[in-house]
UniProtKB/TrEMBL annotation:
Listed transmembrane segments: none
Subcellular location: Glycosome
Keyword annotations: Glycosome, NAD, Oxidoreductase
Annotated protein name in UniProt: Glycerol-3-phosphate dehydrogenase [NAD(+)]
Disordered: annotated segments: 1-31
Length: 518
């Protein structure tokens, strides 16, 4: 059972002291580490409330999973068998004057693989809810005394009412039926490219439904064998166990046959050749969910132009972008992305495939905006890395990122993007992640350039793609085409092309004419 993390508004600050493990007491024994089975814990009245929140979080998972966990409360309280999918039974118990008893979560029919692990997670979350509740109670009773600060009663009521309104709105969405949803009808999905992100997104899909077949189409037979025998991508995501319903193949025809969707995670510069190679196996009706971010050298095309051009036909396609490091997706950590498609219905379908308690999926029709932001943030991340590699300080970094945001907005708007896209997940969200996040490959390239390393050495020592390197030159071409001046992004291309050192680039950028903000 996955429970959403506590909303930040109720996160205590500073953190409550952690309790020793096992605070829950009456836990049942786990059947095995791979874990199918059952767990037990004692509940008091407020635990029922938390268990209810937990059950609602679970309700957005697949139907078989929801039905598999059959909670029952001890006969000493309310002898009921509860439907966890809607939490109604738990709600009744939470309101009962004698609420409490023993909660047994069980997957007696062995429907959900690793159900023991999920049960364990549910109990840990209950622990956490209890701990935070206890801490909040202490803090609120001592707020006046300890810090001399407290909201007024009117403010507190307002906050509570606003929060409750949000929760009611949210409940309406969560109680919607899953029957007939894209996820329910999906049987097989193929992923083009078994690198870091293809693997991570394939695993995210596979976690949604245990009987969904996810097939990674890879080139390397050794990697293929590792994925199928060890359930691990030993090359790109070492140490992460993949769900059992993900497999790999090197055979395009076999990978694609019967797939209802194709996730495209091949680097942009290899995408044309790749798509031409698989064209004959891919039905023109199968939607491509493209996660690659960049612009093609030579044609200057975005992926939304490259796909139909390479396939020489129209193909339904959705562009999924946003701040989403592969490793964190693999770890099932909370992530937000945006699905862009002119066809709103198809964007909604993709939202339905990926949305989960750990993945939010916004929708937009602004394909150009999402694609340009996704491609250009990689170039900006190289610039941010350069500034960090040169140790120029936080002021410099913030000024650079702000300038880069303006440049991306100038170009994307000239190309017809919506201004709001820039402030969304694919714009600011991904810019913040890649310019400041340690896991960014593009930022790492920049850091090494800023420290004085040569580009060829950096590329030779890296086994993964940093799309910004190739995209930088294309951006300069687009800027010329749309008659817009992009100082920072152009300087990155100059440094990459070895015409300017990082120090010279910074000197020249700082000495550009002082201008009005635009
Ligand atoms: N890694 C990440 O955190 C994220 C990556 N992306 C984007 O996803 C795309 C893929 O990135 P990663 O998976 O990280 O790259 P990667 O470098 O980890 O893996 C690339 C994969 O593509 C395959 N490949 C390369 N050329 C190929 C060809 N000609 N034919 C078939 N397969 C080929 C490689 O064998 C490898 O499996 C990039 O456009 C990247 O910007 C997007 C969001 C996050
Ligand atoms: O696009 C990404 C995260 O959203 C990944 O960025 P890097 O390619 O710089 O690692």
């Amino acid at each position: 059972m996955l429970i959403r993390p506590l909303p930040s508004a109720v996160q205590p600050n500073p953190s409550p002291p952690s309790q020793p493990q096992g605070a829950l007491g009456n836990r049942g024994a786990w059947p095995s580490p791979s874990g199918r089975g059952q767990c037990k814990c004692r509940l008091n009245r407020s635990d029922c409330k938390y268990a209810l929140q937990a059950s609602r979080a679970l309700a957005v998972r697949t139907e078989p999973a929801v039905q598999a966990f059959k909670p029952t409360l001890g006969a000493d309280v309310v002898p009921t068998s509860l439907a966890l999918s809607n939490g109604v039974g738990l709600e009744a118990v939470a309101q009962s004057p004698v609420a409490g008893g023993e909660l047994v979560l069980s997957d007696t029919d062995d429907v959900v693989p690793e159900s023991g692990v999920l049960c364990d997670e549910a109990l840990r979350n209950l622990d956490e809810y209890r701990r935070v509740e206890a801490y909040s109670a202490t803090v609120s009773s001592s707020a006046h005394i300890s810090s001399g600060f407290a909201y007024s009663t009117a403010q507190r009521n307002q906050i509570r009412e606003s929060w409750d309104a949000l929760m009611r709105w949210s409940k309406v969405f969560r109680t919607r039926k899953l029957a007939g949803s894209p996820l329910e009808v999906a049987k097989k999905i193929v992923v083009f490219g078994g690198g870091s992100f293809g693997t991570a997104m394939g695993c995210a899909l596979a976690r949604q439904k245990s009987d969904l077949e996810v097939v990674l189409l890879v080139r390397d037979p050794y990697l293929c064998k590792d994925i199928n025998t060890l359930h691990e991508n030993t090359r790109y995501l070492k140490g992460f166990q993949m769900p059992p319903n993900v497999r790999a193949t090197t055979l395009a025809a076999e990978a694609i046959a019967g797939a209802q969707y194709a996730v495209h995670a091949v680097p942009v510069q290899s995408s044309r050749a790749f798509l031409q190679g698989i064209k004959e196996y891919l039905s023109p009706s199968v939607p491509i969910i493209c996660v690659s971010k960049g612009l093609e050298v030579g044609s200057g095309q975005m992926m939304s132009e490259l796909i139909p051009s390479a396939l020489e036909r129209k193909q339904p396609a959705v562009f999924l972008s946003g701040p989403s490091f592969a490793r964190e997706v693999m770890q099932n950590r909370p992530t937000g992305v945006v699905a862009a498609c002119k066809d709103g219905k198809l964007a909604k379908t993709v939202q339905g495939l990926f949305a989960s308690p750990t993945m939010r999926v916004n929708m937009t029709t602004d394909v150009v905006g999402v694609e340009i932001c996704g491609a250009l943030k990689n170039v900006l991340a190289i610039a941010a890395g350069i500034v960090q590699g040169m140790d120029l300080g936080n002021n410099a970094l913030a000024a650079l990122v702000a300038q880069g945001c303006s440049e991306i907005r100038w170009l994307s708007e000239k190309m017809g993007a919506k201004p709001t896209t820039m402030s969304g997940l694919s714009g600011l969200g991904d810019i913040m992640l890649t310019c400041y996040g340690d896991l960014s490959r593009n930022r790492s390239v920049g850091i090494r350039l800023g420290r004085g390393e040569k580009l060829e050495d950096i590329i030779a020592s890296s086994s993964q793609v940093a799309e910004g390197v190739a995209t930088a030159a294309v951006v300069v071409g687009l800027a010329r085409k749309y008659r817009v001046s992009l100082p920072v992004l152009t300087a990155v291309a100059q440094v990459l092309d070895n015409n300017l050192t990082a120090h010279e680039a910074v000197f020249h950028i700082m000495n550009l004419p002082q201008i009005e903000e635009a």
